[in-house]
Design brief:
The structure is a homodimer. With about 230 residues, the first copy, chain A, is of the alpha/beta class. The first copy, chain A, has 8 helices and 7 strands. Chain A has helices at about 1-30, 45-55, 70-80, 95-105, 150, 155, 175-185, 205-225; strands spanning about 30-40, 60-65, 85-90, 115-120, 135-140, 160-165, 190-195. The first copy, chain A, has a 7-stranded parallel sheet, sandwiched between helices. At the A-B interface, helix 1 and helix 5 of A face helix 1 and helix 5 of B.
Chain lengths: ~230, ~230
């Protein structure tokens, strides 16, 4: 089926070109864009809720939610008090740059410091699709097991940081936080590793500091070049 | 991008035709084939290990393992004592009938009562691909949250049964087994629901009985038609 590969390549190339356009626009308007990827139920939306609660007064946040169906996540995020747009992929397994372009029309223009994209719950498909983001962040929950970086290496290779979530459950599961961390770093030694429990709040401050550092670095880099 | 849709349709149609051929072969050799789908880390491989330990002397089992990378799962299953073939999809997000056809060449011919296929860890992509199986079974772990049937309805619509796993963790997470069960049945009222903990062994007997019933039904149906 070589024709499939060819067409798929065309689609991903068109996606990459559009994503570079979005990236240039994000740079002009000085906004940090993060693309959160993870398995279903790893805790992406709860991490977002925690992030919004903590950073809402400090910086202007917007959220783009990707799901195969329902607007449950956008409702949760909007309830937390920030502008949120839901993209339903109709069963599609990842977001694409054209969906982000469309979603941006529905967000308040030029008003954000940080846009957080929550991708479709999927540890494979989103990894190859550039959305114009500054960084992808993979959320890996301890309850999924500590071997996931080995079995799904692309998600860890494509990301700048891994958030290890549900560390409060370590006493009750066979997986170990230390093994998950080591496996992630064995795949991508450059990963920033943040360990949190979105349920208890443990480690969330480290995650907030990571976001602050990315925003400062982006704005500092721009100032340096000005 | 309409050409993509067309090509994809051709590929899935070819897949469906091949899958029907496989299904006819499975019927001739009197083998029950199950396709296990789930998010990464829901517990598919541990469920398989438990199944093999319990049924090994009672029926002849074979396993086909699908993963984007590594042969960790096939090694675990082979260690449990049954023939196992690993399919690496090279990052691909689901198995296809042609991969099953190839894997069958490497399994002992005509010697199985039950072939269990463990699909790639992904709650979306495998749902639309017929592998010639008698039934798909979705494993949904409680730690993923109890809203997954609503957000990923296709997996629950495509399946004959849902195995709710990790029920031992209910005291430690916000999700409830009863809500997960209700949400699954709201999407597909015909689902068989089995609740287990692969860690403690709770409920595993119900799962084994479900497999026994499927095998008896398949062989009974064949006898009826003979």
């Amino acid at each position: 089926m070589p024709s499939t590969v060819t067409v798929l390549k065309d689609v991903t190339e068109a996606n990459s070109i559009l994503a570079e356009g979005l990236r240039a626009g994000f740079a002009r308007s000085d906004v940090l864009v993060l693309d959160i990827i993870a398995s279903p139920g790893a805790g992406k939306t709860t991490l977002l809720e925690r992030t919004i609660e903590a950073l809402h007064g400090e910086m202007r946040l917007c959220v783009i939610e990707g799901d195969p169906a329902t607007s449950l996540d956008a409702e949760r995020v909007a309830a937390a008090g920030v502008p949120a747009v839901q993209i339903n992929t109709g069963g599609g397994c990842h977001l694409e740059a054209r969906m982000i372009q469309a979603a941006l029309q529905q967000l308040p223009g030029g008003e954000a410091d940080v846009i957080i994209i929550e991708n479709v719950g999927n540890l494979l498909c989103p990894t190859g699709w550039d959305l114009g983001e500054d960084a992808k962040v993979v959320v890996s929950s301890l309850t999924e097991g500590d071997d996931k970086p080995l079995k799904y290496p692309m998600a860890f290779l494509a990301s700048k940081a891994v958030v290890i979530n549900k560390i409060d459950l370590e006493p009750y599961v066979p997986a170990k936080v230390s093994v998950l961390r080591e496996n992630a770093l064995s795949i991508n030694p450059g990963l920033d590793v943040v360990e949190v429990s979105c349920l208890t709040g443990q480690g969330i401050d480290d995650w907030l500091d990571w976001i602050r550092a990315q925003l400062a670095r982006k704005r500092g880099a721009k100032t340096d070049h000005a």
